Amino acid sequence: MEISIKIRMSTGKVFEIKASSSSTMTQIKQIIANDSNSGNCAVERQRLIHKGRILNDDSKSCSDYGITDNSHTIHLVKSSAKKASAAPAPAPVSTTSPSPVQSAPATNTSGQPTNTASGGNSNQNSFDPFSMMNMMGDMNMNNGNDNNPLFGAPPNMEELMNNPEQMSAIMNSPMMQSLTNNPDFMRSMMENNPQMRQLLDSNPELRHMLDDPELMRRSMEMMRDPSAMRNMMRNQDLALSQIENMPGGFNALRNMYEDVQAPMMDAMVNGGRDNSSTSTTNASTSENANRGAAGAAMPNPWASSSSSNSSTTNSNTPSSNSSNSSTPAANPFAAMMGGANNGNNNSNPWANMGAGGNGQMPNMEQTIQMLENPMISQMMNDLMSNPQMMQNIMSSNPMLQQMTQANPQVAQMFNNPDFMRTMMDPNNLRSMMQMQNSMQGMGLGNGIPSSNGNAGLDFSTMLNQMQSTSLQNSGGNFNSNPVPPEQRFRMQLQSLNDMGFDDNPVNISALLQTHGNVNRAIDLLLTNPPAPYQQQSSAASSVPSVSSNPWAAAPAPSDSANDESQVSSPPSDNSNEEDATPKNATEKKND
Amino acid sequence: MQRTPAGETVIVPRNFKLLEELEGSEKGHGDMAISYGLVDPGDTFLREWNGGILGPPGTYHDGRFYELRITCTDNYPAEPPTVKFISKINMTCVDPRSGLVQHSRLSATKNWNRNLGIEQILTGLRREMCSDANRRLRQPAEGLTF
């Protein structure tokens, strides 16, 4: 019997394969290996997990494992190549002659050791951890939420470096992974920086290196392992001091530095020039590069391409290969982020977008600036147009997850690339900012303390209303014409009617007071029935004009906890509420 | 416990809840890093479950796959299921001899309520693997069992 099985990868990607219920695991793995969706994951690296069990008996069939009908999902986990060989793999028994696909990664790994072995470096990497860290440091997201690896990187490099766990958490975040797994994206990032492009043009080997996704992947893997990273650093120190001791070695280092590292630095510095305080960031970048070079005063000379490593350096010293080529690979990031960095680097759009972040108004400005940077906007676009990636980000952020779970609508919103794009549009952001500005003024004028607490309260009231509104506007357009409450609360009214509350005018005013929350409306109806609803007056008062700006909706998720409290707060001072809401919309994002 | 639109609380019977969880596990919803399913697909009482946790990266557990046995008693979901590690693991909330997860030391089971399920326990355990107390614990060789 033919069945279709969903394969779910650790990246979150899901694809379907067709198999027969009598197919053995070997056959299934073969099918997966031949499927480009799995990235042609080699058979021996596949680990299939179904219903809490590893399907490790290759001779068993699907039906033996209880996979007998459609819609079963098997999790596919790629184990590292090393592990696969060490594991008591029953694979060899049944493996057929390996397909070219399978052997490809194998040759890759065996190709690498030529570099590493001669350098005496036990890690199979050709990547400098520091440069990656520079990049992370420059991304230097938000200090608000420390628990969150992706959105709350520590404020400075050094801290990050001393904290390998955090480092690996960052590297492991699906966003980073998908970023680095995407060679096209890396390339376009590189190409977007004119200086970098020049450098790449003059150093074809360098470009070649950057084009190798395998290399990138491996360096990422290394970053994930704190001990490997330490080891790597030690080896680098050693190699450097050895080179310096060789006659002529120092000169070679200097040449290399002048040829490659210096232009690279230039590229970076120029990338971030237009920002007032980027100089700090860059300073720290170069400082870190220095530290990468064994704490010597000399900038890291290993920033040459891998091929130049093998030619130039090899002739000088036998140990040169141990540390090669990584800085160039990472610097584009630094440049990118450097260019995007403003002020205290609180400008992480995610932090602002998500409920996290402690940014204030100026951050908003920074965010906008950042988003206006073509490179960033391209990255954003890439991100936005890839719902899968968004999904990953969502699921990796517990806060967002909570948010989306509490508000299915929000999840929907996040999954809509168009919506995200609009949301990220600098123009929209800017107008939002202006609104926020003026609102703040107004709020103060009205004597409303603009503390976050109050703001959050009012805001979520509005949110509630927005939600019920957008529910009814099936298309999810956030248009501003207030819909008559009978219309808006159609569903809620229906359920109230079903429950035996058939006085619609009273129901409507109860719903209006509770912003569409049926449960609370019932409470209200039972304890303290409100006056029947009259057409104009209440509609106008309790439905603050819903802003058409999608931003207003974005933070909706922010506080499901708050939701509760607001709903109960009577919409007494509606005029104030109206003033405060748009401001909160943006503020919410920040706190 | 679920709330109806009318605000009443409804107690979902044991088997309904477990069937729901079973469907979720087969469809592969939810967290990527955990997996669970019935030991015997014919188990009409839905008692014995296999669980699997993929070790969180950046810890000693990285790349490992831990197998567990979950037993849903008749009182489930009023009380949390018994959870026992099959793969050997060194964790503060796991009895070092039997592999039993001590309910009082795992937040998911300590603060158990009817809305939680097997998945929440497994994800809770996985989160626990990353906790400060656990992440640095040395782990026995892979492949050993309790």
UniProtKB/TrEMBL annotation, chain A:
InterPro entries: STI1_HS-bd, UBA, UBA-like_sf, Ubiquilin, Ubiquitin-like_dom, Ubiquitin-like_domsf. It comes from the Eukaryota. It holds the Pfam family ubiquitin. Residues 3-71 form the Ubiquitin-like domain. GO terms for molecular function: polyubiquitin modification-dependent protein binding. This is Ubiquilin. Residues 484-528 form the UBA domain. Residues 79-107, 275-290, 303-353, 533-560 have a biased composition (Low complexity). It comes from Chaetoceros tenuissimus. PANTHER family: FI07626P-RELATED, UBIQUILIN. One of its GO terms (biological process) is ubiquitin-dependent protein catabolic process. Residues 79-133, 267-357, 532-591 are annotated as: Disordered. One of its GO terms (cellular component) is cytosol. Residues 108-128, 563-574 have a biased composition (Polar residues). The lineage of its organism: Eukaryota, Sar, Stramenopiles, Ochrophyta, Bacillariophyta.
TrEMBL record, chain B:
InterPro entries: Ub_conjugating_enzyme (IPR050113), UBC (IPR000608), UBQ-conjugating_enzyme/RWD (IPR016135). Keywords: Ubl conjugation pathway. It comes from the Eukaryota. The keyword Endoplasmic reticulum does not apply. SMART domains: UBCc. Residues 13-146 form the UBC core domain. SUPFAM superfamilies: UBC-like. PANTHER family: UBIQUITIN-CONJUGATING ENZYME E2 (PTHR24067). This is UBC-like protein.
